[in-house]
Amino acid sequence: MCFSAALALPLLSNLEKNSANCTSNCSGKDEDSNKGQSLKLSLPAYKWRLVIAYDGTRFSGWQYQQSTPTVQCILEEALTKKTKINRKELCLVGASRTDAGVHAWGQVAHFVTPFNYETLDRVHRAVNGLLPSDIRVREFSPAGPEFHARFSVTSKIYCYQVHNSTIMDPFLRHYAYHSEYKLDADVMRDAAKHFVGKHDFSAFANTSRNDRVPNPVKTILRFDVIEKLIDEWKLCLPTMSTHPGSTIQTMG
């Protein structure tokens, strides 16, 4: 049995969205310490929107770090190779930071170039070809000058999975929290209702990291608790060059 809890968070303020049009963080440092840094590019500048999926198991989160591998760092390396533009000029910005080991299916990001691309399909394939198998750009599209991956957000969805079994499934160890005690889905749903709405979430801040959230009052639009059945029978034959699975795939 596996439980999935999904939270939906709402729109950012118009003030934050408008301020994004004239400032952006391109240094790779903490975004909050670079709010006043202006992006200076030779005109014309073209902006590109990416939707990225990644398995975050081996990464130290999204945000660029010099000492450890992150998703932003790897993606910037691929983009700099393809565009021949250094990372500061690319100014790759993500919609959200994710912590170490956290995965994403629809992380939105944008970057800029001083030149235009007439056909994006080839560029899209080339960038994915430069990325490791645990990162993929799902969508690659042009964006208007007013678009900002962080400040144009209308909502965010976070999904937390709990594998509810006496024994943890080794295939899920990177994708779910393990709870060996029987969980009551109905009780969890009743508790989730109390989170919906506008509340002060200061009590959930990580005091050990001295988190300083400018405004701890947030609004949660939905909090769904979904109970799923996990297939007990799994057959994985990754080392065999010929097996029934590959034969069926070839026929398809």
Automatic annotation (TrEMBL):
Keywords: Isomerase, tRNA processing. Its EC number is 5.4.99.12. It comes from the Eukaryota. GO terms for molecular function: tRNA pseudouridine(38-40) synthase activity. It catalyses: uridine(38/39/40) in tRNA = pseudouridine(38/39/40) in tRNA. The keyword Iron does not apply. The keyword tRNA processing applies. GO terms for biological process: tRNA processing. Residues 52-151, 191-226 form the Pseudouridine synthase I TruA alpha/beta domain. InterPro entries: PsdUridine_synth_cat_dom_sf, PsdUridine_synth_TruA, PsdUridine_synth_TruA_a/b_dom, PsdUridine_synth_TruA_C, TruA/RsuA/RluB/E/F_N. Belongs to the tRNA pseudouridine synthase TruA family. This is tRNA pseudouridine synthase. It comes from Solanum stoloniferum. The lineage of its organism: Eukaryota, Viridiplantae, Streptophyta, Embryophyta, Tracheophyta.
